[in-house]
Amino acid sequence: MYNVDIGKKILSANEEFALKNRHFLAEKKKLCLNMISSPGSGKTTILARTVTELKGRLKIGVIEGDIQTEIDAKRIRAAGAVAVQIETGGSCHLSAAQVSGVLEKFPVDEVDVIIIENVGNLVCPSAFEIGESGKIAVLSVAEGDDKPIKYPALFAKAKVLLINKTDMLAKGASEDFDIERVKADAYKLNKDIEIFPVSAKTGDGMSQWCDWLVNAVEKLKSD
Ligand SMILES: Nc1nc2c(ncn2[C@@H]2O[C@H](COP(=O)(O)OP(=O)(O)O)[C@@H](O)[C@H]2O)c(=O)[nH]1
Ligand SMILES: [Mg+2]
């Protein structure tokens, strides 16, 4: 049996592409966020509302990942931002190679930040780096407050957690969803995570998330 240690980590093909994307984006000083959640928690609605709320303040470019269809990219374009759709054709997560292919033709210089909406899934997307500066987790109140402890990987890695659909709580729907429990569980996994309760439908809480985004872009530019 031979055990050869060449003292060098061998990167997977995905890690190679993620590194390439990271270098490309770092050279251009562009913030790139990887948005991850279950299907239907409100990623596209949050993004469309963020584009509208930050019009004139921040230029957002979006890469949409879905198994099939251009529906989400069209929704983002309708909100006024550039959006490119990746259809994974069955894969439950975006790969760094797919993102690399899009970045080659994306108008990166014309935007301040790129947000990538990953395929709706709480598990696989958090296991594959795509060259992002950080991950944004979205959890809607309709999904139950036990998700951070049941799916810890995403919440442990995310820079931001958006707790969406808070309007439902006000209406008495999902009344057993305990926001304080979610916050406590998320902080236990990740003491630095920033948590913003929002309603992409009513706009409640969106300005705090938008301010965080603007500050994160400014910080990267001045670093
Ligand atoms: N009540 C409520 N519904 C929302 C909110 N955000 C999104 N939705 C609805 O949730 C559904 C899924 O939203 P979508 O943005 O497509 O989720 P995605 O699959 O994560 O991109 C749509 O019917 C949205 O209108 C919200 O803040 N409150
Ligand atoms: Mg979507």
Structure report:
This protein is α/β, with parallel strands linked by helices and 223 residues long. Helices cover 39% and strands 18% of the residues. Strands 3-2-4-1-5-6-7 form a 7-stranded parallel beta sheet, sandwiched between helices. The radius of gyration is 18 Å and the shape is globular. The mean pLDDT is 96. Bound molecules: guanosine-5'-diphosphate (GDP) and magnesium ion. Residues 43-44, 72, 117 line the site of magnesium ion (MG). Magnesium ion is lined by residues 43-44, 72, 117.
Give short descriptive properties of this protein.
single chain, 223 residues, alpha/beta, Rossmann fold, 7-stranded parallel β-sheet, 39% helix, binds guanosine-5'-diphosphate, binds magnesium ion
The order of strands across the largest sheet is: 3-2-4-1-5-6-7
Shape: globular
Our count of helices gives 9
Unreliable runs: none
Strand content: 15-25%
Which hetero ligands occur in this complex? guanosine-5'-diphosphate, magnesium ion
State the order of secondary-structure elements, H for helix, E for strand: HEHEHEHEEHHEHHEH
The major β-sheet equals: 7 strands, parallel
C-alpha-based Rg, rounded: 18 Å
Structural class by SSE content: alpha/beta
Oligomer: single chain
**What is the second-level CATH architecture?**
3-Layer(aba) Sandwich
Tell me the domain tally.
1
What is the CATH first-level class name? Answer: Alpha Beta
What share of residues is helical?
25-40%
Number of strand segments: 7
